[in-house]
């Protein structure tokens, strides 16, 4: 029950931390009550989406780190961020890989019919980055209510159609169920033939991002052979099938390298001796199991992931009781004009750390010596406004584990 590293949190930052330690041959346990926001929101890798499209990412990150010295990217550094991205990309070789177009942000279509900036996009979405008006056919499915093809198509200046799903007897179908159907050769052949009937000169066909949980590149290629046009996925409402693909790939790789998983369970108690965490308890009543490690990484996310919790007055960190940087009063969490273009103060709430991502108080005093913090739970960033969620999670998860293992060495 003793490990070199225990990672608390199974989102992208926790997975990256586990990967870093596993590559060093360490004994790793990762604990999570869920899969984080990876399977909710992540379709691409946002690094810093609010940069102008013409600016190269490395240049933009470097300037951002100078302008925002307390930001997580500033603590990681540009070189380490690139190293972390390379580590992430190593898990996704062709044919299902992630690509940066000209080393800068690109614009991809969304299910709302808008274009959003992002940095790394999976193979199945690349063709959408070159979508032009009247050159795309947007396809939806009857009974699938998380994507409205006609509405998205109107906003994008394209045609939209809705195909019926005769194979399903349900009035409604989920994204996961539709993705599983797409993995059946007979089903995608039927869909491909139906799409081909509606092609009227378009060179690209956009579908909701449900082209299979596994081997989505094969689903894409098979459809292209039948339809005779480029196929691309469009990000839609949660759950995120592309995010699920990423999670499954991480889990497969980590288990192959001996990482232990405790999924669907939460840390209920920690035991501290001075400034060190000795062990954690995972409760699954009536069973309570205790696990110890030399090092710990806390990567539980913010409010959505449960890494931070809020009551009527304050935001708190529930596992270690770490102090949370936050507005003085609850009434100051949001600006008076909720739709204000400026970021709301509550979105920068989080945990303070030193330069190696160990938690500190507001005066810079170290709180825990063998605990490192990573991901969106960190203070002084607004990943929603910055469009930087995945980038921060990848960079800080990797770097926090690197510091932890370097100290252990």
Describe, in plain words, how this protein is organized in 3D.
The protein is of the alpha/beta class. The chain folds into 2 domains: 2-42 and 68-77 and 259-408, FAD/NAD(P)-binding domain (3-Layer(bba) Sandwich), CATH 3.50.50; 111-234, 3-Layer(aba) Sandwich (Rossmann fold). 30% of the residues lie in helices and 21% in strands. The chain has helices at 12-23, 57-67, 72-76, 78-89, 149-156, 175-182, 185-198, 216-227, 241-256, 383-386, 389-408; strands at residues 2-8, 28-32, 98-100, 106-109, 115-118, 120-122, 136-141, 159-163, 204-208, 230-234, 260-263, 267-273, 276-284, 287-298, 309-310, 315-316, 371-373. Strands 1, 2, 11, 12, 13, 14 and 17 form a 7-stranded mixed beta sheet that branches. Strand 15 (309-310) and strand 16 (315-316) form a beta hairpin. Helix 1 (12-23) runs parallel beside helix 9 (241-256) and helix 7 crosses helix 8. The longest helix has 20 residues, at 389-408. The two termini are 21 Å apart. The mean pLDDT is 92.
Q: Structural class, from secondary structure content?
A: alpha/beta
Weakly predicted, low-confidence segments: none
What is the averaged pLDDT score? 92
Per CATH, what is the topology of the largest domain?
FAD/NAD(P)-binding domain
Distance between the termini: 21 Å
CA-based gyration radius: 22 Å
Tell the overall outline: globular
- Which strand-content bin applies to the residues? 15-25%
Q: How would you spell out the order of helices and strands?
A: EHEHHHEEEEEHEHHEHEHEEEEEEEHH
| CATH superfamily caption of the largest domain | FAD/NAD(P)-binding domain
Count of helical segments? Answer: 11
Annotation, overall tally of beta strands: 17
Helical coverage, percent range: 25-40%
Largest sheet: 7 strands, mixed
CATH architecture of the largest domain: 3-Layer(bba) Sandwich
Which CATH first-tier class of the largest domain would you pick?
A: Alpha Beta
Number of domains: 2
